[in-house]
Amino acid sequence: MHTLILATALLGSILLAARTDTFTTLRSWLSLAMQIITHDHLSLPYPPPPAPKDWAGLPAAERLSDVRKRLLPKLNEELAAKQCRLGQRVFVRIFKESREFELWLQADQGAWRLFRTYPIACFSGTLGPKTREGDMQAPEGFYSVTQKQLNPASKYHLAFNIGYPNAYDLAHQRTGNLIMVHGDLCSIGCFAMTDAVIEEIYLVVEAAVKNGGSVPVHVFPFRMTAERMGRAEAVNREFWEELVPGYEVFEKERRVPVIGVEGGRYRVGNL
């Protein structure tokens, strides 16, 4: 099966590169194929999701009923072990280079606790922001999820929209939309987490936004240390430097920063 996926992706990359005459497109498809083949499998302590053919025909309400029945008893135990619970504030950090998705919850005492780090099964494109519809890039920047952005009826098992384009993207005339975190193994522009993994993430995010809040989603090209920034490619360096202050606030203070946009630039504000 993996051989077939790789062959299909390679053929697609060759055809697209020939049509668009861009090496970037070729690199994107090759990266996509290799991620699908090499993604890490995370074993979670829940009964597995239904088969895709059975899941596809379920209305959204039945999907959520099924997920809650299978996951909630054990999920509540998993959260309690980290001194967390459903309904607390949630914060997501994504690191493209290492393909890591961090899910943080704010405990009742106010401290942020890392609940779990998930391997991202797949995202398309290379390091760097999304700038236009059809560029195959997964975005980078500061986004947020509200209740209306949840999509339990997604054809990719379950999904939520991260909020691209945000105010910064619009100020820079970036195009595209419907950038999701979803199930499945494959993604063009979104973040695919596998069906089993998205179920846990979805329930935690859903509980947070239904409790009246939004979930910040900060997407970084890599862990933005001084050493890594010293090796950053010049073409994206100016943009990435705008992301560093937001990264450092949480990394050093364990405080989710308030991010605004002024004069077309990201600004870190005070609480």
Structure description:
There is one protein chain. By secondary structure, the protein is of the alpha+beta class. It folds into 2 domains: 1-38; 44-269, Beta Barrel (L,D-transpeptidase catalytic domain-like), CATH 2.40.440. Helices cover 39% and strands 20% of the residues. It is built from 8 helices and 12 strands. It has helices at residues 2-20, 23-38, 52-56, 60-81, 167-171, 195-210, 226-229, 234-253, and strands at residues 90-95, 100-106, 112-119, 122-123, 141-145, 150-151, 159-161, 180-182, 191-192, 215-220, 258-262, 265-269. It has a 5-stranded mixed sheet, sandwiched between helices. Strands 4-9-8-7-6 form a 5-stranded mixed sheet. A hairpin with a 7-residue loop joins strand 6 (150-151) and strand 7 (159-161). Helix 1 packs antiparallel against helix 2. It is globular. The model is unreliable at 1-21 (pLDDT under 50).
